[in-house]
Design brief:
With 265 residues, the chain is an alpha/beta fold. The protein contains twelve helices and six strands. Helix 3 packs parallel to helix 5 and helix 11 crosses helix 12. The radius of gyration is 19 Å and the shape is globular.
Length: 265
C-alpha cells in the first residue's frame, strides 16, 4: 500500500481515469502495509473522480473472500472491474522446499482467483484482470534463487485467464504479467541477482519496471480500446525475458547435481 508500489499506483490510475469508486483490500488494516493508510493517501489525491474504500480481508481464506464480496455488494451492488493482485513467493533450491511453503503460495496465488471470479462475475463486471508474472511462461531462475512454486502458481493463473475468457463470454479476462518491479515481494530476489542496476542492464529498455508501467496497461485493458482483447497475458518487463535465459544457471545447477543429469538422460 506504499506510494512506490504498483497496487497503489494502479488504484491511483483508476481514480484519475474517472472511476467512481475504488475498493481495495488487504490482509491488514493498520500499519505501513495496511489498507487504512493507503485509503487515506488515495483520498488526498487532487482531481480524482471518486473515493477509495478499504475492506480488510485475507485472500487466502475462503470465508474472508465471501465476507469481502458481501461487503462490496452492500456498498455498491454492482462490480464493474475486478483486479486479482494478491501474491506470495518462496525462494531457494527445489529439494529442501517445505510442503507448507508450497501450500501457502498456492493458497494465495491460485485459490482466490476462481472464487473472486465467480463472486465478481455474478454481478457482471465488464473487465477482469489477474496479475500474473512473466515467470509463469519461462524459467528465469533456478538453484539458490529458484522460485519453482511461484512459477507454477503463475502458470496456473495464466491458464485460468484463458479458461475464464471462454467461459465468461463477453466479460473479458486478461492477465498482466510483470517482470522485475521493486516491491516487498521482489526486493530480496532483486538484491540476490545483483541489484537494480545489474537487472536494468539486462533489460533492452534499460531499466526495471516502474509502478506506472503496470497501471497504464490495466487502464488500457479496462478502456473501450480493449473491448476485443480477451484471454491474453501481457508481459510488462521491458523485453528482458527475450534477451536473458537461464542456461548458465541450469548448467551450474547440473554441475552441482549430477544425479539429475543421469535421471534425465
Amino acid at each position: 500500500a506504499q506510494r512506490d508500489r504498483p497496487p497503489y499506483h494502479t488504484a491511483t490510475a483508476f481514480l484519475l481515469a474517472g472511476t467512481k469508486k475504488v475498493i481495495i483490500t488487504a490482509r491488514k488494516s493498520g500499519g505501513e502495509q495496511g489498507i487504512d493508510q493507503a485509503v487515506r493517501k488515495l483520498n488526498q489525491i487532487p482531481g480524482v473522480a471518486g473515493p477509495a474504500v478499504g475492506i480488510q480481508a485475507n485472500a487466502a481464506n475462503t470465508e474472508e473472500i465471501a465476507k469481502l464480496v458481501d461487503e462490496v455488494r452492500k456498498s455498491d451492488g454492482k462490480l464493474d472491474i475486478l483486479v486479482a493482485n494478491a501474491g506470495a513467493t518462496w525462494r531457494g533450491p527445489f529439494e529442501p522446499t517445505p510442503d507448507w511453503s508450497s501450500q501457502k503460495i498456492l493458497d494465495l496465488n491460485v485459490h482466490p482467483i476462481p472464487l473472486l471470479e465467480a463472486a465478481g462475475t455474478s454481478q457482471d463486471p465488464s473487465r477482469v484482470i489477474i496479475v500474473s508474472s512473466v515467470a509463469g511462461v519461462n524459467v528465469p531462475h533456478v538453484g539458490e534463487n529458484g522460485t519453482i512454486m511461484y512459477l507454477v502458481s503463475k502458470a496456473v493463473a495464466n491458464h485460468l485467464v484463458r479458461n475464464f475468457a471462454v467461459e465468461l463470454g463477453n466479460i473479458t479476462t486478461n492477465a498482466v504479467a510483470p517482470g522485475f518491479f521493486p516491491s516487498k515481494l521482489a526486493n530480496g530476489l532483486i538484491e540476490n541477482l545483483g541489484g537494480r542496476d545489474k537487472l536494468s542492464s539486462e533489460v533492452p529498455h534499460g531499466r526495471v519496471g516502474e509502478p506506472e508501467d503496470i497501471a497504464g496497461v490495466m487502464i488500457y485493458l479496462c478502456s473501450p480500446a480493449a473491448n476485443y482483447i480477451n484471454g491474453v497475458d501481457i508481459a510488462v518487463d521491458g523485453g528482458r525475458r527475450l534477451g536473458i535465459g537461464s542456461s548458465e544457471a541450469v548448467v551450474e545447477t547440473c554441475v552441482h547435481h549430477p544425479a539429475h543429469i543421469l535421471a534425465n538422460a
